[in-house]
Amino acid sequence: MKRKELEKRLRIAGCFLKREGAAHSLWTNPKTGVIEAVPRHSEIKEPLAMKILKSLDAE
User: Fold this and answer.
1) Under 8 Å CB-to-CB from 3, ≥6 apart: which residues?
2) How far is CA 7 from the centre of its chain?
3) CA atoms of 31 and 4, how far apart (whole Å)
4) Is there a smaller number of Cβ atoms within 10 Å at the N or the C end of the chain?
5) DSSP string of the chain?
6) What is the pLDDT of residue 56?
7) How far apart are CA 59 and CA 57, in angstroms?
């Protein structure tokens, strides 16, 4: 999955970017308080993308 597509799905679910790191971006879901690291690669493998979406309740 493209990183842009993953970020779009996270925003639609109400998540927002907490901060940028050197290798990862931290996204948070304000409803649950969960914070998840998203790698800064242009392409993110499908199983990892699904894990991130599930963790942030953005499925």
Assistant:
1) 38, 39, 40, 41, 42, 43, 44
2) 6
3) 22
4) C
5) -BHHHHHHHHHHTT-EEEEE-SSEEEEEETTTTEEEEEE--SB--HHHHHHHHHHTT--
6) 95
7) 6
pLDDT of 59: 80
What residue has token string 């942030």? 56
Rounded Cα gap, residues 55 and 1, in angstroms: 16
Q: Please report where in the chains the tokens 């998540």 appear, as a residue.
A: 15
pLDDT of residue 21: 92
Cα gap 45→2, rounded to integer Å = 9
Dig out the tokens for 14 from the structure: 């109400």
